[in-house]
Design brief:
The structure holds 2 protein chains of 2 kinds. Chain A has helices at 2-14, 29-33, 41-46, 103-111, 148-151, 154-161, and strands at 18-19, 54-57, 67-71, 74-81, 84-91, 93-94, 96-98, 115-120, 123-130, 133-141, 163-167. In chain A, strand 8 (115-120) and strand 9 form a beta hairpin. Chain A has one domain: MucB/RseB, C-terminal domain (Phosphorylase Kinase, domain 1), CATH 3.30.200.100. Chain A is globular and about 45 Å long. Chain A is of the alpha+beta class. By secondary structure, chain B is of the alpha+beta class. Chain B is globular. Classes of the chains: A alpha+beta, B alpha+beta. Strand 7 of chain A pairs parallel with strand 11 (207-217) of chain B.
């Protein structure tokens, strides 16, 4: 265990952050070329600088009440629902770099599932990787202990299942 | 060449320091004292039954951050296992013993939450901080770095720093929030008042503060919560010195 911490700390000391490579070849051509004229202006304007594929669930794409915060390396799109706040995030930046030989982190990335759903602090989160970037969907409820959107996976799993690329470019 | 040698020497010293701190303790170490402020080592969770911390991980993941509460004193200790806590000694959450040094790390404290860096892959993903007194809506949180407010939820505010780190501030009073989504903020700028807000379910009066960052491992990456205790100790010392 001691060795793990030493390795971790040493590697972290040596490496700085940067930008992850996005694999645009893995993005469906049809999704890239699809006309986005139908999308709300707030979305189109908000994500025009984003350099990674932007995903939203189909049921929220035309929701004009969204708030978009973004730049080249990330986006954050949130919605105020009835008694909850919904958030879609994507990020292609990294802040630390660790050697692939680092056993703790090597194990961590190898163990990572394609989709990881977890609940903490009353917030349900779905995390996944696509095209080399990191994505998350999260929902935070006014009644975190009783609202099924925050206590059960079904709602967020459903959102994940309906993701659609709405923008972003190389 | 000089910088390479310097880096080597620093690394060696770091190794030695870590090595000393990760040897099994026959008995708990006394708190470290700094101008009247004292704190126990990173990863030394109190009480012991509250979980397994990341002992020996003294790395400052967020160097140079501003302490997230505007003024000292503030107290880092367990909300769950502290006096009056859900699994703590019976008593009031406002017991004065919860409002005194030394600080105790509570990153990785027992929870059922997914946490890759904690023993068993589960634990508390942040640090709980009590304000000077047990009063809600009295003490301001502040931005720890320059950045942008990316999200405001039912009881969460997210700040993405220019470095790409994402900080979460939980349990502020919703009515007290002074920022909006998309607003750029400066280090030290007020965000809102510490409270017990967790939607309709009230929690104890404290700030849950955490930080998520993406770590690249070879050609893969993962976004994870990292330990902040050492960064906060460093920030608090600067706050006490009048150079926050």
């Amino acid at each position: 265990m001691r060795l793990i911490f030493l390795n971790l700390s040493f590697m972290l000391l040596l490496q700085a952050g940067g930008v992850l490579d996005v694999d645009w070849s893995s993005v469906e051509k049809s999704a890239q070329q699809k006309s986005s004229k139908a999308y709300p202006k707030v979305l189109l304007e908000g994500i025009k600088e984003v350099r990674l594929p932007v995903y939203l669930s189909t049921s929220f794409i035309e929701n004009k009440s969204m708030v978009v915060v973004a730049d080249k390396g990330f986006y954050s799109i949130s919605f105020s629902l009835n008694g909850a706040t919904l958030l879609f995030e994507g990020d292609r930046t990294y802040q630390e770099s660790v050697s692939p030989q680092n056993p703790e982190f090597q194990k961590m990335v190898q163990k990572a599932a394609a989709l990881e759903i977890s609940e903490s602090e009353g917030i349900m989160v779905a995390e996944f990787k696509r095209h080399g970037a990191n994505y998350a969907i999260s929902i935070e409820c006014e009644n975190p202990k009783t609202d099924k959107r925050c206590t059960q996976e079904e709602f967020i799993r459903n959102l994940y299942g309906r993701l659609k690329m709405v923008g972003g470019h190389p | 060449m000089r910088s390479v040698v310097a880096l080597f020497v620093v690394s060696l010293l770091f190794f030695t320091a870590c090595d000393k701190k990760t040897k099994p303790d026959p008995k708990p170490k006394p708190p470290i004292d700094y101008k009247g402020f004292s704190y126990t080592a990173p990863g030394a969770l109190v009480p012991a039954k509250s979980g397994v911390g990341r002992r020996g991980d003294n790395y400052i993941y967020a160097p140079g951050i501003r302490f997230p509460i505007e003024h000292a004193p503030a107290y880092i200790n367990s909300q769950v296992y502290g006096i009056g806590g859900y699994l703590g000694e019976r008593g009031s959450l406002c017991d004065l013993r919860n409002y005194q040094y030394p600080w105790h790390d509570n990153f990785c404290e027992k929870r059922g939450w997914s946490m890759p860096l904690c023993a068993g892959g589960k634990g508390h993903q942040g640090v709980d901080i009590r304000t000077a007194t047990c009063d809600k809506n009295r003490y301001y949180t502040v931005a720890v770095e320059d950045g942008v407010i990316t999200y405001i939820g039912q009881y969460t505010v997210k700040l993405r720093s220019n470095s790409g780190r994402t900080y979460r501030y939980l349990h502020m009073d919703s009515q007290s929030i002074l920022v909006k989504r998309g607003q750029r903020v400066k280090r030290g700028q007020r965000l809102g008042l510490v409270s017990n807000n967790m939607g309709s379910t009230k929690t104890s009066i404290h700030l849950h503060f955490d930080m998520k960052q993406t770590i690249k491992v070879g050609n893969q990456s993962k976004s994870i919560f990292v330990p902040l205790y050492s960064s906060l100790v460093d920030a608090y010392k600067r706050l006490l010195s009048g150079r926050p």
